[in-house]
């Protein structure tokens, strides 16, 4: 679980996920530090995992288009604000290009 969350955390901005959305998964890490201790996912953690899964399935990596403006979005959240650099490409089916 810890390795999975590490990978998801590093991809979080690209996937468009907030720390708040992942919070239920991080709550599952609380408790005994023993790697062999039993862990179980709460209903909220399962839902957060589904959100992550859908985000991974729906995102495709694209390079920056030098002909398009680069935008900055700062998103406040309950736990930690984050920012994304992106481009908006009207010619694509999914116009959002997260950089």
TrEMBL record:
Domain of life: Eukaryota
Statement: the UniProt record of this protein carries the keyword Phosphoprotein: no
Keyword flag rRNA-binding: no
Pfam families per UniProt: RVT_thumb
Gene3D superfamilies: 3.30.70.270
Key words of the record: Endonuclease, Hydrolase, Nuclease, Nucleotidyltransferase, RNA-directed DNA polymerase, Transferase
A molecular function (GO) term: hydrolase activity
Domain Reverse transcriptase thumb: 1-50
Database matches in InterPro entries: DNA/RNA_pol_sf, Rev_trsase/Diguanyl_cyclase, RVT_thumb
PANTHER family: ENDOGENOUS RETROVIRUS GROUP K MEMBER POL PROTEIN, RNA-DIRECTED DNA POLYMERASE-RELATED
Protein name stated in the entry: POK19 protein
């Amino acid at each position: 679980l810890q390795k999975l969350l590490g990978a998801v955390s590093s991809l979080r901005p690209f996937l468009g996920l907030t720390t708040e959305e992942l919070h239920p998964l991080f709550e599952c890490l609380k408790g005994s530090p023993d790697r062999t201790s039993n862990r179980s996912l709460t209903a909220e953690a399962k839902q957060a995992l589904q959100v992550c899964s859908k985000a991974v399935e729906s995102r495709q990596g694209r390079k920056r288009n030098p002909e398009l403006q680069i935008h900055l979005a700062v998103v406040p959240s309950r736990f930690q604000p984050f920012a994304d650099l992106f481009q908006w490409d009207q010619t694509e089916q999914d116009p959002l290009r997260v950089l």
